[in-house]
Amino acid sequence: MDIRKSLLLAAATLGAPVWAQTCQPSATTPYLNINGTTSWAVKASASLNAGSRVVLGPQPVSGSWSWSGCGASGTSREQTLKLTASCTATATYTNSCGAKTTQSYNFTVWPAMASNAGKFIMVDQFGYLPNSRKVAVLRFPKVGYDSNQSYWPQQLQVVNAATSAVVYTAWPQDWNGLQTDASSGDQVWHFDFSSITTPGTYEIVDSTNNQRSARFEIGDNIYRNVLIQAVRMFFYQRAGQTKSANNAGAGWADAASHLKAGQDTQARRFLDPNNANTARDLRGGWYDAGDLNKYTSWAAAYAQDLVEAYVQNPTVFTDDFNIPESWNGIPDILDEAKWGLDWLVRMQNSDGSVLSIVGLAGASPPSAATAPSYYGDASTSATLASAAAYAEGAKVFASLNNTAMNTYAADLKTRAQRAWTWALANPNVVFRNNDAANGTSGLGAGQQETDDAGRAELRLIAAIKLFAATGDTSYRNYVDAHYTEAPMFASYYLSAFNAGNARNLLYYAALPGATSSIATAIRTRYLDLWGRSDYGGWGAIDAKKDPYRAYIDSYTWGSNAVKANAGTLFTEEGYYGISRHTADDVSNAALDYLHYLHGVNPLGKAYLTNMVSFGAENSVNQIFHTWFADGSAQWDSAATSTYGPAPGYLVGGPNYGQWDWDSRCPGISAACGSTRPTPPYGQPPQKSYLDFNDGWPLQSWPISEPSNGYQTNYIRLLARFVK
């Protein structure tokens, strides 16, 4: 039989013409990636805020593509779109034999936030879990920059944003007899819509006054993408890491920083800068905050917090956060913690001591920095903090059933023990950076050194972590002999301002082998203090002290981190199963602190950067950060620059009484302006915030600077409510 006849018979058998058997269209798979920063999802549709960015990357990779719609064009397989209205993007794929396949992406784009939205009706802009308590806060500003505005709420409606259907109607309830709250300067009402549990996108509407809230979702995993961005903040903070467009998103791609001659791989001792024999390979680690320096004690705390977030929520932290180590079989949050631990390993001396700091040059982007890197000498505080981090890393990495990580964990355990031994033998070795009296001016920015009480706390934490990692009773004996020196016992002090100390004591109390009577004493003291009527825990909730439902004692530098810490003090009760309250009470108490950070505050501000694409219509536009600097055409502001700062950074937040312009203003510089900006100046505590990133002389850093420490506190709280 000739070939032509064979083809005809085959075609007849299959019921298709010959040409169809020889050149058929190929199947395509639609992938999209929000903002180029999340992991790729097999999706052909999404609902997004106006101004959101989305990256389209259909497969297969081979063959050719052409595009139309939503601003897509040309032949590049990957398309990055900034969406302003609902639209359909259409991709046409042509395979190697010329057959074509059409793939459509359909986008519902919510309109830009209306001018009357979110001024007086405050909600969590990311949303609410279906079965959680849901309370919008309504405000009449009486004191502060906005006291010339007024709002008296009428009956309110919950409206489905997609269908305009009214799903609930009720009157709000006033807070505290409509007294003006001193912390916010507002009169307040609460609108409870907890009965709405159906997933969807909603708004709170006061049709009488033509006022509405920002949009929000109700859903069972609405915070997952928020958590991914919050964890990815550490990836952007990595020193010496290539940030490819595939991992960082095109807007924040950058070459590895601080790897030039004389920088991190050849860092020299600050106090002996001309001696080449002092050069050390100290690459890696994280930029600490808005400055690009690396501080040992603080980095050790960050690594521990990341590990503990995983330990408390192991199923939440998957291996697909789109960092370079993703899909390696290890949860990405542990990969991130390991990045920090690897740097701490390089910082350790052969005698067990650990160097205190590496000072890095600043530049925007960081890869443009050219000046040398210098390190500070070893100190007791840096060594104790590192001992705790090594020990915690050893325990958790050994639990992964991974041969390579077992070896790594064993090395960390040995390092922890050596650090402990050195620190006990050298209890008061101090190194003060950026201190003229010690000849260290210019090394770093913040002061990493602590005092005697701080070193005592670090010894206690290190002993707890070493006991957990080794089971050696000598460490337990140290804890048992010194736990009453902690503030909970020594001064009856438990607050969101010392949450870390309290959390570590609870951790010890839950360890197998912990002394039973001491474990009981710790749990009892914790519950007694956090439950006191005159403290900032359950007593503040019972007394309804804060109209925005997230009480802290004061609004100082880093108040947003304090808010997150307060929330975790409730979640710790739930995690360890020791609370005197119901599980729902614990969850709702902690969630109110999360809602505050997501927009339930007097400014209606979601205190994370550049989160419009992830659901927050009024997120932070500017932060004080060397990379995302004031005036940068690319990164200055999410509202006006090409890209704005990378997503997911938590800013310091309202700062009452600790911010001011340079004392020589206004005469020292035209940049002062004629008067201090208000806000943040002269406002009630909760309004002492401004979305700005000016350096000298307006010095925004006490308000708008991020910190890795703020970030870990937030991650620990947020992770409790993610699946």
Automatic annotation (TrEMBL):
The organism's place on the tree of life at top rank: Bacteria
Record keywords: Carbohydrate metabolism, Polysaccharide degradation, Signal
Q: Where is the Glycoside hydrolase family domain?
A: 223-710
Q: Where is the signal peptide?
A: 1-20
What sequence ranges are listed for the domain Cellulase Ig-like?
Answer: 119-205
Q: Which family does it belong to?
A: Belongs to the glycosyl hydrolase 9 (cellulase E) family.
Please report the name of this protein according to its UniProt entry.
Answer: Cellulase
Q: Which organism is it from?
A: Roseateles saccharophilus (Pseudomonas saccharophila)
